Amino acid sequence: MTLGLFDPAFLGGLVAAPWTPADIATALWLDAADAGTITESGGAVSEWRDKSGNSRDVQQATAAYRPTYSATAWQSSLPGITFSSYTTTTYLENASLRNLPNSTIISVYSTSTSNSERPFGLRSTSTTGKQTFAQRAGDNSLRYDGAASLGSIAYANGSYIRVSTRSTSAQTDFLNGTQNINDTQALPNIQGYYNVGGAISTLATFFQGVIVECIALEGIVSTTDRQKLEGYLAHKWGLAASLPAAHPYKNSAP
User: pTM value?
Assistant: First the structure.
């Protein structure tokens, strides 16, 4: 039997596969929906493996510092990793130092306290030099050293997709698809470790809430790829309603 050009069976073979972060060059990709990437014992996470192909797994060797994993941590129906409190040492980190002039970090998290610190970023081992770059959940700002911040808005409980970029001359942040920060600071290259749930070099305060996905790119993400990432994450984690009405992936995933 020969299929006509408009036969559904013929057209089915032309339908593009859904877009995922595997379609771009990721430096790090952590995905709580992929249970096979998580090593845990009794709910305590010792390792969250990198899906980027770069083997930048984030780990925690100290049992008392490990966050917890649950198949229902995210909106009571999807898996996620829970970091217990602002003052309790729970974090995961990759021990490979990165030295980058430009970087993009993306995270999906939920928090219910204005004290909550950094869900994702690069943490320095130095207390000076503006060598960190991290998202702060408590006021939706970006932190670029031990104390300084870029932008902030009134805190509100909820779940967020954050896409943040940093170069040596400009920094941006998009919160659920809407730009939150557009700032300029003269900053040196980033030097630090990929860190999930931690804080500044002293590791004095921590993220409190649930984290489900973290992605890093080396370089500044394009508008097209940023919107694809937002659309992919929004539909995957039930946050499409939070995207602005004009977003190209408001109604369907890329």
Answer: 0.91
